[in-house]
Amino acid sequence: MSLNPMHSGAACPGLVQTTSADVDEHCAQLGGWRLTYDQISAGAFRGSFTQLSLPQLDIFHEVTSQQVRQHGELGRDCCGLAVPCSGEGPVNVNGTSIPQDALIVSFDAEVDICTPRGFTLRGVTLSAGLVDEIASQLAIELPRDLRHRMRAMSAPADALARFRAALTTIDRLRGTQTEPRQSAALGRTLQDGLLLAITDLLSDARPCDDTRSSAARKRIVDRACELMLASSASPVSLMDVCKAVGASRRKLSYCFQDVLGTSPLTYWRAVRLNRVRRDLKAAHDPRDGIYDIAVRHGFWHFSQFSLDYKRHFAELPSETLRRARMDASSELRHNTFRH
Predict the structure, then answer these.
(1) pLDDT tens-digit series, residues 203-245
(2) Interatomic CA distance for residues 108 and 101, integer angstroms
(3) Domain segments of the chain: what residues?
(4) For the HTH araC/xylS-type domain, which residue ranges apply (predicted)?
(5) CA-CA distance, 173 to 52, in Å (whole number)?
(6) Alpha-carbon distance values, 183 to 18, 69, 218 (Å)
(7) Quick check: 153 and 204 in contact, CB under 8 A?
(8) Mean pLDDT in residue range 23-48
(9) What is the DSSP string of 130-181?
């Protein structure tokens, strides 16, 4: 992972760019958002995140190479608006697949998105209170069911195009040499343009999903995930899950495909592999072996587990553990030398 903040006098102030080859490290750099990323598709992960912080909002540009489930929250009283720009499949938001020209809005709400391989997302985050304040000042009526929800919205094509154009300004600022006074003026201009674009979008935005049916599908998937991942010590079968949620295997598969873009068994295995990987990266005690960690998450056949792990993360579990312990040892030496 590399973290390269851009400081005033060297480039545009407030601009931070990161790259990572690990989904957890990538997630940790996302502007202080309280999210968890699980890598669902198999293969080496590559991600990048660029954020420009202005006085009243942050603009971001995120790229991820693998299919990822993002869940958590952006922050208290935080409003996020984003537009998908590329991807090798559909984006699933809060239980339903969304159109390519949809606007994703999270208004002080829980985030739940499943993104495809090769995904690019551009967006902005700001205070939900600021959105309400500006809407009041401009006499704009926001959609009634916008608050405390995350959903896909449809918006007029011209308003969406202006929003997309404003978001790409971040690309032109990379590596730009600016004086503090020029930078402040540029930031105010960009911020005002985005705030106007946001209010234009939200004033005419309408839900583009069937809320009732998508909510029902998501309830089934959430309950199934809760059962599948609750206890690896006493694993349940797919039949047990189907009985508990009251759905046939086919219906459960349809629901998982709609909500998460993958099958129940693929998701089940992927999340457990992600948990193993996090435990391996935190396993600094030599007595905590790979097999012990694998069994902790329901992988009883070690050879098959090793194959699945390498296929999913493009490295053996022993390589993950070795690197984690080397990093921990290096950090310990650094702290000892510093004190």
Answers:
(1) 887 877 656 667 888 899 999 999 888 866 666 788 999 999 9
(2) 22
(3) 2-209, 212-334
(4) 222-323
(5) 9
(6) 21, 36, 45
(7) no
(8) 93
(9) HHHHHHHHTT-PPPTT-TTEEEEEE--HHHHHHHHHHHTHHHHTTT----HH
Quote the tokens at residue 109.
């709400």
Query: What is the CA angle 107-108-113, rounded to 5?
Result: 70
| Residue closest to 19 by CA, chosen among 48, 59, 50 | 48
Let me know: does 60 contact 49? Beta carbons within 8 Å: yes
DSSP assignment of 240-251: HHHHHHT--HHH
Burial degree of 147 (CB within 10 A; 0-12, 13-18, 19+):
middle
pTM, entire model: 0.86
What is the rounded distance in angstroms from the CA atom of residue 316 to the CA atom of residue 197? 47
Q: What's the rounded Cα separation, in Å, for the pair 81 and 60?
A: 10
The CATH class given to the 212-334 domain equals: mainly alpha
Residue whose pair of structure tokens reads 């903040």 in the numeric block: 5
Report which residue type is found at 119: F
- Report d(CA 285, CA 271) in Å as an integer: 24
**For the segment 94-137, what is each residue's pLDDT rounded down to a tens digit?**
878 888 889 999 988 889 999 999 999 999 999 999 988 888 88
> Are 130 and 152 within 8 A, CB to CB?
no
Token output for 155: 């918006």
The first and second tokens of residue 61, run together, are 């540009």
| 224 in Cβ contact with 252 (< 8 Å) | yes
Amino acid identity, residue 309? Y
DSSP summary character for residue 269: H
Per the CB < 8 A criterion, the answer to whether 90 and 70 are in contact is no
What single string gives the DSSP state of each residue in 61-103? Answer: EEEESS-EEEEEES-TTEEEEEEEEE-SS--EETTEE--TTPE
Residue 175: alpha-carbon gap to chain centroid: 26
**Run of H or E residues at 265:** helix 264-282
Residue with tokens 């995904």: 119
CA 87 to CA 84: how far, in whole Å? 8
